Amino acid sequence: MLRPYVKFPRPRPPRQPRKSFGTSLPRPAARSQEADSDFRPPWVYTWSRLLSYTIIPTVAVYSIFFYDFGDREHVFQPARRWAAQQRALFFTLSPTEQKTLEAHSSEVTETQASPRAQPPTA
User: How far, in Å, CA of 9 to CA of 5, rounded?
Assistant: First the structure.
């Protein structure tokens, strides 16, 4: 029967004190709790983070799609052409929708042209 190979971790050597390659000045004393406390309330950090997460993408989208770089070709032109194409596709009717619209508009004109749709004359 084969025994599974088990590797035991090697014992670590005892830690040596770190050598300082700087001056032999003593380390500064630990800062007190008062020095570490911040005068700003915690909600400031939350709002700061939320604002940065919203403002940075907003500026990026504005600069890519709306900022005027002049008439010359620039790095954002492919993205702007893609957005223009998507906008045109969104506002253009498909052939099926055009047929439905033509059928509906012909029904409306026939209804308006019928004599029953005219108001009675006195």
Answer: 13
- Counting DSSP H helices and E strands in the chain, the numbers are 4, 0
Query: What distance in Å separates the CA atoms of residue 68 and residue 74, rounded to the nearest whole number?
Result: 10
Burial of residue 83 (CB within 10 Å: 0-12, 13-18, 19+) is: middle
Task: Please say whether the dihedral angle defined by the alpha carbons of residues 17, 22, 26 and 27, taken in this order, is positive or negative.
Answer: negative
Please state the pTM of the whole predicted model: 0.50
Tokens of 120: 């009675």
Per this entry, what is the length of the chain? 122
Query: pLDDT for 23-76, tens place per residue?
Result: 666 666 666 666 567 888 989 999 999 999 999 999 999 999 999 999 999 999
Indicate if the pLDDT at residue 118 is higher than 60: no
Maximal CA-CA distance, the chain: 114
Q: How far is CA 95 from each of CA 19, 36, 109, rounded to the nearest angstrom?
A: 80, 68, 21
Determine the straight-line distance between the first and last CA of the chain, rounded to whole angstroms. Answer: 114
